[in-house]
């Protein structure tokens, strides 16, 4: 049993508020336990310079934490004058992950920017940003499909992410901050609805890990992501949104 | 009658959620119509270098808008590499206004930082930040008073702010974004519970204004702020918080 | 009687040197007591991106202090790597104020940049920058009118600014640095030749102020600005420059 | 057979020049095919602020590419004014990986900085930096042990890294730039001499990958790293350097 | 005969206003033809970190041009976010040159900062800054000597600088902007009162120059600097300031 | 006799590796004693904005030192967020010097960027960068001439640079770091194959120097550069490269 009463293979309660923002093409407030992330998807009818004139679209992400999202206040990156390494690493991961399920050719020359702003952080902010960012993206593409007639539906599959780790010789699913700070290994996994891996990032700075531990973590992550994707399907289904048949 | 059905001297519906953030010493989510600002108050047991060793405290504020708080997405200031002039101007105003009701000597050598992050903007974000920031500050000082025994209660009075303007020859209270962008004059007023002025900032870039218009705006602002402060008293009173008798 | 021998409602001696700079389209060295500001107006036959193709012009201002303009030396903003909040706030104010008397449509697609560089600071640098910046602007537009035939004269009215404040229960006009640093309220007022308000910015961080004090300050400011505008008229008149009849 | 004649499970020729730099405490020029990285280890008898007074040491890494290390010239980060996201991500990875085999307590209050400067890039610059950075670190600690008497030898194990990927349905070891740019999956693995994992980072942005592909890549990486560590042992052994018996 | 009527070996008219700034320990407004530089010397009773505790002083310089000091307006370096290469090069030169005549040991642990702000530029701004900066420095040290009793007078000698160049096969002294922009060689020379060289910087980017031309320029520079130093002596002598006998 | 056994007028051993970089159009690794600089020449078929449409080319240089090129480690400029003054000064010098022997009109609308990255520094890094940068430039133009048919060969002459100085009353050629740090005067000279001066930069911050010392240094520099240019001719000749007959 874990400090918050969960089983080792149990996700935290997930909650979502659809369209909390009246301006964004897609938006969700996603909560995983006490971690709260506001994800907005903004559609811009232009692409970055390196894609101009190729008929392809682009999906990118930005990530930030409010100064008091954490136990002690952090200085704003606007005052530091730059985004720190951790921020860049995370937003690059979110962007890559989301692009993996978007048919950029089908999207056409437009950019969708997913902003993930962490209002409160209690572990798993990057994985929750991916799971929530996918929902915001799906809402925006759904909205776009009302005005643009896509030859193929640009969203190819579902996508979700979860963290796993090893703490006191036990493999745990969906670590909160306290668990995460004590874990000897920490791993983030991103998978598609079809059950393929998009990202696997495991780090054993505190203590290297064995192949058996790696396999244990991968198994638990697969199981957790399957639940998250089922929950995403229900959430979008209730809102009348269906991911297109298009296969990549 | 105004586009949203209000009378010229009518405030938008104000709403507050107390303590939405589990880490901050004080926090509120304040809503004025569709403007939503998350205000947190963080206590730090240190003061800035220029105050060290004087036995005095400090109150300061920071302000930011999420990228999609507005109709079209704005670039993050962390990516621009600096805060823009508008941001600096606003957070300097919020900080000055809040300090005017704090007895810095009584607070002792500690800093309270008020972060005002605009989740959604529909006009009046700076005045709403002041009104909400005051509540977060009051909650934090109330919490502090549970562990620190202050010789005098460091919060001397209530404080609220509202915008007024002149649109089509009519003086209006609490402008929303649409009204604000058409107004010929725009004025922000900050007042204390005792009815004194803390800040008066009127700008007639589009069209200079007369003394009569100025007087009209000041009158409407006084009336609106009186209502806001009554509402603040109720809000804090319901939470069992009373501003000390201490006079400045 | 004030420390420098002035009456409460008395301006400091104002002095101006016209065209001290041989390159700028308009320039003045303005002195208000010991405050000295070099103001240049530079005409550029382009407009910022947001105005392109609209047939309108633009007026903008920049403000800076030389490192030793003040009692103790300040670090250069070029070395800090950015303009500080105070600088941005002031130059935004100067720009807004000057634009209020310019007919941007009449000016045509060109930008006039007013640079206000404080050589020596003894209080009132922002108000002196506005009063002097107006003169530089008027000289530049006058010079422009020699080569461009404007349908309407682009300068609609005179403009000047002064500070007022409350010190030891007395309302004072045109505060020097020593008075300013002790005043409980500080207010900057900008008005046109027609007697309308363009900006009213009063701050009572040290001590909130009453409506009566506000009215007293506004009255004194009106009187001081009237004198400044009479002096501006003489100054320009002596130089053979007359502001056009055009009404806004 | 691969374009450069290698078998799928074949490393590129590895070459090392020990101590090419006369100032650094440890330095190597490592070459993996046409990828050339100069790694220096600099010892500083201080630790970062967050470690002061704890009796522990620190190991950190910085990574950069010379402007013409690549096919077309890249702008210097000193001119951009900041390190880009990719750089930060890589140097954070190198630092974490190297720290995993250092006994920071045993090292004492000193910092070792590993600089990895890529002179020529042909794929695998981050994994080659880790493999070479380890050698520079080992040389520096060996040198330190000549003057400092460590209670335990601060280097606990060997460490090396290699990339693996999937290209045209085939799992390949140690991709060069051309292979890397065409691969559907790209994975970097870091392991210790004891055969444990320190980092596993797999990315399938172009195309998600299956568990079978993941297992194939992990197997190939293990085999490649075993060879690299054997080569590291020979290299250091020839230089008379033996990693201490100390276990973590 | 030159365009402005001068002989090839003739300086422009030099003019100086002593102590134009009421705050600085030393200040001069120096004019060389239409080039006008405001030089202030600020004394700070601290030294930079690298000199702490050595009992030595420091002299440093900063240089900037007002935006409209030149024919067309330049962007402020505070807005660019950094000083450009030309600025850094010039202020490093001014600082080095001035330090060469200061006995840093005799000065004691204090820093004198010479700010050279170009109000109007017509060629020779760096040499004029050195010549004027020396005067401001001398005034500041003279003032210091009124309150500090120096064992040796910290100013060892006079110092001045001038530019020379080759234009249409003729060697010219003290080039103005028009001459400078057409010259094939441009050289700045700094010398002491004793007739020694402190800096010699000749550049023939447009066209390499011969040893004979170099000798011609050096001769003319020596002659010009001798005149400037005589003028400095008169200027300071009239103000009752005498450079101490101290030899370096 | 000098500490390293050289005569006063003796160069350090010079060594060059041609084309150490497989991507750059021209590259050399140049060694002057223990000073090692990697110089690459990159051709870009565009020119900077200020040259667009004039049919002329451009040559520019950038300079940097690896963090541990020196005795103690230096912070990277990418982390400082800017290039320091010394770097800017040096790269401006290298660029100017190289441009002096290039016929920019003949080169056509293309830019050649010379990157000089110091791998190890032992004095004379700027002069070695010029001497080596010239070789990289010559290799790149030679390569270009294989595909572009130039009306005139764009490289007009050879170019090399050396430092000279005065140490203990003796004039020395090609100072190493130890000599340089003790020298009272330090001078860098750049000359063409035709024996003309391109740059002469002498600095006597520690101690002003006489005309006789200046003449002594110039003589020694001429002699050293003559040897360097002979060595450059051999080096390029062995590689089958001949500088065109074109005269400037």
TrEMBL record, chains A, B, C, D, E, F:
Main enzyme class: transferase
Entry keyword set: Nucleotidyltransferase, RNA-binding, rRNA processing, Transferase, tRNA processing, tRNA-binding
Catalysed reactions listed for this entry: tRNA(n+1) + phosphate = tRNA(n) + a ribonucleoside 5'-diphosphate
EC number: 2.7.7.56
Binding site for phosphate: 86, 124-126
Gene Ontology molecular functions: 3'-5'-RNA exonuclease activity; tRNA binding; tRNA nucleotidyltransferase activity
GO BP annotation list: rRNA 3'-end processing; rRNA catabolic process; tRNA processing
Pfam family, one: RNase_PH
Family matches, as PROSITE patterns: RIBONUCLEASE_PH
Domain Exoribonuclease phosphorolytic: 10-140, 158-223
Keyword tRNA processing: yes
Family membership noted in the UniProt record: Belongs to the RNase PH family.
Function: Phosphorolytic 3'-5' exoribonuclease that plays an important role in tRNA 3'-end maturation. Removes nucleotide residues following the 3'-CCA terminus of tRNAs; can also add nucleotides to the ends of RNA molecules by using nucleoside diphosphates as substrates, but this may not be physiologically important. Probably plays a role in initiation of 16S rRNA degradation (leading to ribosome degradation) during starvation.
Subunit structure: Homohexameric ring arranged as a trimer of dimers.
Protein name: Ribonuclease PH
């Amino acid at each position: 049993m874990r400090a918050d009463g969960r089983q080792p293979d149990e996700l935290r309660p997930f909650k979502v508020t659809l369209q909390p923002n009246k301006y964004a093409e897609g938006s969700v407030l996603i909560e995983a336990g006490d971690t709260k992330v506001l994800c907005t998807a903004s559609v811009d009818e232009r692409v970055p310079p390196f894609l101009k004139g190729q008929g392809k679209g682009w999906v990118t992400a930005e990530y930030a934490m409010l100064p008091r999202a954490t136990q002690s206040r952090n200085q704003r990156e606007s005052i530091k004058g730059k985004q720190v390494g951790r921020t860049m690493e995370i937003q690059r991961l979110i962007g890559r992950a989301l692009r993996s399920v978007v048919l950029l050719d089908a999207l056409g020359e437009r950019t969708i920017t997913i902003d993930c702003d962490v209002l409160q952080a209690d572990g798993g902010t990057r994985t929750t940003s991916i799971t929530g960012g996918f929902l915001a993206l799906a809402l925006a593409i759904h909205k776009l499909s009302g005005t643009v007639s896509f030859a193929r539906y640009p969203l190819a599959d579902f996508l979700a992410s979860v963290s796993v780790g090893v703490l006191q010789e036990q493999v745990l699913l969906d670590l909160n901050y306290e668990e995460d700070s004590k874990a000897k290994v920490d791993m983030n996994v991103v998978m598609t609805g079809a059950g393929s891996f998009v990202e696997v990032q495991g780090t054993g700075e505190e203590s290297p890990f064995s192949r058996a531990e790696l396999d244990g973590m991968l198994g638990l992550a697969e199981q957790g992501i399957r639940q998250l994707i089922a929950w995403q399907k229900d959430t979008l289904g209730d809102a009348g949104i269906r991911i297109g048949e298009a296969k990549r």
